[in-house]
Amino acid sequence: MAQVTLRKIIKKYDEVLAVRGIDLDIVDKEFIVLVGPSGCGKSTTLRMIAGLEEISGGDIAIGGHVVNDVPPKDRDIAMVFQNYALYPHMNVYENMSFGLKLKKTPKDEIDRRVKQAAQILDITELLDRKPKQLSGGQRQRVAMGRAIVRDPKVFLFDEPLSNLDAKLRVQMRTEIKKVHQKVRTTTVYVTHDQVEAMTLADRVVVMNAGLIEQVGTPNDLYHSPITKFVAGFIGSPAMNFIPCQLEQAAGALNIRLSDKLSFPVPADRTARYTSQVGKANLVLGLRPEHIAETRPHTEPNQHDFDMMIDVVEPMGMETLVYFTLAGAEICGRVNPNAGAVAMQSMKLRADLSNMHLIDDGTGKVL
Amino acid sequence: MADIAAPSSIAGTGDSRSSLHKLMQRKSTVAFLMALPLILLITILVAYPAGYAVYLATLNKGMTRFVGFGNFTFLFGRDTFWLVVYQSCLFAITAVIFKALIGFVVAHFVHNIPSKGQRKWRGMLLVPWVIPPAMSTLAWLWLFDPSYSAINYLLQPLGIDRIPWTGEAGWARFSVILVNVWIGSPFFMIMYLAALKSVPEQLYEAAAIDGATWWQRIWYVTLPMMRNIIAITALFSLIVTFANFDIVRVLTAGGPLNSTHIFGTWAFRVGIEGGDIPLGASVSLFMVPILAVAAAFILRDITKRGSEV
Amino acid sequence: MTNVAITDAPSTRPAYGSMSSDRRWALRWSYFFLVLFAIFFLMPPIYMLITSLKTSQEISAAGNPWWIYNPTIENYLELLTQNHYLTFFRNSAVVAVCVVIITMLISVIAAFALARMKFWGSATLATGVFLTYLIPETLLFIPLFKMFAWVNETFDIQLMNHWWTLIILYPTLTVPFATWIMIGYFASIPKELDEAALIDGATWMQTLTKIFIPVALPGIIAATIFTFTVAWAQFLYPLAFTTSTTELVLPVGIITTLIKGDVFNWGQIMTGALLGAAPPLIIYAFLMDYYIAGLTAGATKG
What we know:
The complex is a heterotrimer.
Chain A: E1 4-13, E2 16-26, E3 31-35, H1 42-50, E4 57-62, E5 65-66, E6 77-80, H2 92-102, H3 107-121, H4 136-149, E7 154-158, H5 166-183, E8 186-191, H6 194-200, E9 203-208, E10 211-216, H7 218-223, H8 228-233, E11 240-249, E12 252-256, E13 262-264, H9 270-273, E14 282-286, E15 291-293, E16 302-308, E17 311-314, E18 319-325, E19 328-334, E20 345-351, E21 356-359, E22 364-365
Parallel strand pairs in A: 3-8, 3-9, 6-7, 7-8
Antiparallel strand pairs in A: 1-2, 1-4, 4-5, 9-10, 11-12, 11-14, 12-13, 14-21, 15-20, 16-20, 17-18, 18-19, 21-22
Helix pairs in contact in A: 2-3, 2-4, 3-4, 4-5
Chain B: H1 14-56, H2 70-76, H3 79-112, H4 115-125, H5 127-130, H6 133-143, H7 150-155, H8 169-198, H9 201-209, H10 214-242, H11 246-251, H12 263-273, H13 277-285, H14 288-308
Chain C: H1 2-12, H2 17-52, H3 56-60, H4 74-81, H5 85-117, H6 122-134, H7 137-155, H8 165-169, H9 171-187, H10 191-199, H11 204-215, H12 217-233, H13 236-241, H14 250-258, E1 259-260, E2 263-264, H15 266-286, H16 288-300
Antiparallel strand pairs in C: 1-2
């Protein structure tokens, strides 16, 4: 059993708080991804789990044992670094076996484990090469091999793919997922790339400014963000935020975006939003895919409106259109054949059944 | 999700804090022990003698009596002392300027030629720096020999009559500077060559497209890019040349008539050979101000560069 | 490498005709001046060699000093069989080797502690190391001389006039520089490498011996070469601290024993100086790249 538990973890550098008290429970065999912008404290958190940084407050437990003062080597963890940190003077075999050798593991046992890990990662023929002779992707595999060989309770990944080019990154992402499915070791993975987070994680932890914003499955985070930060961070292109007001007129609830444009609130949300009527600082959150070209057939909660398009970006399977509404730049995703032309008016359709109403003052999704 | 109650297994965190402290203590203790030989060496054999020199300088010749600034006032009253001050500064400044110039020029020539030949030339040109100075100065002494000078032999056909390289004050000073430059300029050459190689080729290409002539390229691209290395190399060399001993000692031993003595050689003459240790210590202490200034500039430069990275 | 491509370019692309002739002239001038400078830089060692192969009669003859009329190895034979030259050579070699070992032990371990482990005052100490590197031996030899006299009076240990005394003295010059170079080299090793070692279960000592020393080997070689060169060439300390013929090292030995009064035995002096310059020159010839790396690292690494 290798669950990891963080309790009120704090990290202070001099007087600056990098991590401001986080609680997190990572279940055995789970793949957890810490994601957030740079400086949000995700790497610091990972390094505290590894024991490379002292914790300034709180407790960390691995497999039920508090490890606050346990040195890294006795925490039974393995870590994969951003720059791989392969020992340049050792060949792949020696790199992978270094930790076991220091633990005085019997030679044949070392050999068995290295060979097995090499097979999982498909690097058997690279075993006697030096890191210098390897490509980026191969180094990445070796770094993972070094972790697997030790058969630790927890794998820690610190932005392992950010030194690879885009194509290789996608390939290695799949590779990492496959390896996790094979070895089922509890994994904590840090990245700033939300696509990586979404594709890899069982659960994603979104961090911002030293605090956890939200923990949840990728779908949870995408469809029901609880803060504006998460709503804006997850998803690409990012969710549109349109300043709006809530009006009550003739018993119906309306979202007013501009003098000319207002939409009725979906019926299932009216009860939830009634208390917000007339409040300032409200923002409508709508993902680009919920702003599309108009179609003949209308579903409930879909509303057509005319817009002057500023920029058109064809992506192949879809076309992104940008326009300005209530002072905000809004992105919509339309069919490539919908005939979007820059600097021309276009009839678009907003689908409010997946809308979010956000209080910009508190940053909470209502 | 994030507020599941703490499992009961998380307990006993109170006593763990103190052992964490112990761990940290242990790491820094180990580090301190590893640095201890260095600390002892620096304290006993460098820092203490440096301080001791100041104390020695305040004693009388027999080292029995405290005389305060007596040695210093005595030195101020002696013409030889002022000669030494003048010569130390003259040698250091002139030699460093010529080392820097020659080093810069040679580095450029080496940089100009195809890079597969560069290694060979660089290797040849660095030879003066590799030979122990005392030995190479002996060769110069022989080249300068009053009766058999091989250089005078070469100059004779040019109509230049026997030059008294080490026999006359002016020529002796020139010779000392010449040998200094000969030994030191390869060092400048190597430093500048390394710096030249670090200037991105695109900058020169951009300058060429902007219509810069070759010397405008040197003035507006090369020199500003190398400013730091030029400064730091010159400061290093200033220290080494100013505190030099070997060259003067072997070439002229301070003569003729003290006209080539510098602080190092005069301190040796007065302190060790003359048996007046306090006076010798006082003489060598006069090197401190200029060394301190140079050191301060180097340190500033290094810390500045460190913070830029 | 880029300038190879550029100088080669004209031959493959004749369109740049005027530029290629410019380049050719620049190249010719470069070679011309390089030859001049090479003559200037190599003249003394070559003259050493010429003189060492002459008899004393030929040296004092009026002929062309740059030509050897009757080459002989008499000087070499005499120097290596008689005199104390071999004693000087042995003293120099033992001192240099011991100083190298002591210096590298002290400085590699200390540099690792200073670069990686950080303890109270470690940053100040690193600066201090650099400052001591700037203190010349001309400032220290008088107080050290007096200190050694005091040790003799107090503990009855005679440190003066023994070649092994130099093993105590030379590290004052070599350790600060070697430590400084090694701090620079260690600092250039990515932090993740020792973190990986830490997670792999290495102790600090194992991290040093199994990771840092192998990875920083070029730096260690450079520092070793430098230390050897300094120890071999040092002149002031042996001149001040040793006097008996059996205790001398090469630079001082040649000067004090081969120059008798104002009688200079130039043939043997040049032979001795050339042989004395040989070890650093041989090391330099084989390890030039390390030598140069150390030279530039010492003054530029911050």
